[in-house]
Amino acid sequence: MKIDWHIKGKQFGNCNCNYGCPCQFNSAPTDNYCHGIGAFLIEEGFFGDTDLTGVKAVSMMKFPGPIHEGKGEMQIILDSNSTINQQKALKSIIYGKETEPMATAFAMYVSMMEKIYDPLIKNIELDINLETRICNLKVENIITTKTESIKNPITGEPHRARIVLPEGMEFKEAEMASGTTDANAAFKTNFEDTYVQIAILNLTPKGIPS
Question: How far is residue 188 CA from its own chain's centroid?
């Protein structure tokens, strides 16, 4: 019998693609490869009897081509302030276990991996703001990400845009932003002023609740 779980909160991702990210429209990534990080803040949640309120996690991924062609590499970072049971729960969720087949983006990403590195346990500092599109991520000395609103190239004023995916498995609607990441864990990756998505996190073993 599978363990029931439900997590709610906020999430954001920053990858090497141009604003909008062609992957969201079933097109090839901007540079014909994909490097990205995702950060998750659970504001309310459980995994069986384990309370997940306040738990944070980060995922680093890279693919030599489009995601659906596979051959990816992945490493997750779990917060050192979480308990052993919370860390076990997050590993299960992110690795697509205790989940209906391909019901979540987590399960989909893992199915495309050729190599999954051992998780790291690090202090995670994370702030996510959907309204301002300002997010800050700091994982000790291995990951730094800062996001801001996309700027109008003429006036310099913030430019607001959203992507709506009615059948999306990662999110149904996300704010667009600009982000810069410098990361050095199992592999190095960095990008400057590139695609950011900021969205509500709401997942169960069956995916995003209707």
Answer: 17
| Cα–Cα distance for residue pair 210/208, rounded to 1 Å | 6
Return the number of other C-beta atoms located less than 10 Å from residue 94's C-beta.
24
- Rounded distance, CA 176 to CA 187, Å? 26
Residue range 77-104: mean pLDDT, rounded: 96
Name which of 55, 12, 40, 25 is nearest 164 in CA terms. 25
pLDDT of 1 strictly over 70: no
HSE of 20 in the Cβ direction (CA atoms, 13 Å)? 7
List, in order, residues 6 or more apart from 76 with CB less than 8 Å away: 57, 58, 59, 60, 90, 91, 94, 119, 120
- Distance (Å, rounded) from C-alpha 44 to C-alpha 36? 25
Contacts of 85 (CB under 8 A, 6+ apart): 50
Least confident of 51-55, 137-141, 142-146, 185-189: 185-189
Residue with tokens 């500092």: 125
Residues 112 and 96 sit within 8 Å (Cβ to Cβ): no
Cα(63)–Cα(34) distance, integer angstroms: 5
Q: Which residues contact 97 (CB under 8 A, 6 or more apart)?
A: none
Cβ-contact 200, 97 below 8 angstroms? no
- Asked if 29 contacts 4 with a C-beta cutoff of 8 angstroms, the reply is no
